[in-house]
Write a structure and sequence with these properties.
This is JmjC domain-containing protein. Helices cover 34% and strands 19% of the residues. By secondary structure, it is of the alpha+beta class.
Amino acid sequence: MKAGDNEHPRENDEIEYLEVDRRDPENLDYETFVDTYLAPNEPCLISSLVEGWPAFTELNSGGKVDIDYLEAMFGEASAPVHATTVVGANFFGGVSKPVTRSMTVMEYCSWWRSHHTGDGDGDGDGDGDTDGHGHQHGHGHGDKEEGAMRYLYLKDWKFTVAFPSFHLYTRPVYFKEDWLNDVASAYKFVYLGPKHTCTRMHADVLRSYSWSSNVCGRKRWYLVRPEHTHLLYDVFGRVLCPHLHFDLENALNAVLFPGLKFARKVAFEVIQETGETIFVPSGWHHTVENLEDTLSINHNWLNGYNLKGSWEKLKRELLLASERRKADAERKGISDFLVTDTVQGAGAAVNESPESFDDDSLQASGDLVLLYDIIAYQVSKNLPTLSSSDLTCMRDVLSDIVALVAGGEGGYEGALKRRTEWKGSELLKIIEGALG
């Protein structure tokens, strides 16, 4: 490890983190990857997968991000940019929830040049005065804590959607069975951020797998197994800690996050170098820090090994969303009863139209459509090549979806029929026939 990799303050210096396997592709075939990592849901780091990529030859200039090339080729494109504030060394004081805005790549490259020292240390957003070390004493964004730094992180850029004919990379063979991106290219991303940018603690959408390749730069990952997820939440089980190294010497934080000190003892640490690719298993929570200016390519993906787990998570979200809407409708009914001049009165039916859905319900509804589309696509396009375990997984998930629609609860039948070609029962018969 390079100097500075272990700059965690106070008690964190004493932690001995678990390590993931580091593999050379010359000694790792697809079957071994499946048996050792994919099926058992274990992480690993694979070297030397990016050297032949155009992204590696065009966007990596002597180990640094080639900002000039990026701007010249893609400057007019828009991309989401996340503004975050980091408090204290190595996120010890926390990292704020990002505020997302859209910028052109040209605008982001201009910011990069204007607020960059050239040694990998950005000097903050610049919206306010700085002391030369990125410490904000600012105006325009409210008061800043001493030592707080604000950074812009271009992330979740759907490059392949914006430039479908520009092939930056080739999907590695280990991740070839990607059912998610067969039907939706929205889960392929480019990330670009200066040193100190960070992604807060999270688990990936739909309990998907993810892989991430460093075209240039270095990252530090902390990963926590699904069975230890509860250690990352507050005492009420509602709020996820922002970072594994959130300050527990603060008495309030220690009371609110009593499990975090135990989570650190079972966490994995990974230093990912340029050219290396990490496989993040389904349901593993993680934080990611850029140790240098870093450009990476990232995919979320699903297949027969994690589709059922994805569905189990979504089922819980659908149930919670339906219960929230029913509770809201009951409260509205009581309110309408008490307000005598209301138009509808207390006897109004529960509104399960899409217009009544909150953001979480809309997301769950969209994910339901997506999972159905994944199954429908695989059955219609790839039925002869699907294994019996793939078909069994699809049958189990689709049976639940068909039952959900038949039950009529939650308004999800309408969502499926409006947004996709609903043939659930027919597809189920095809799958059962293929299984014999």
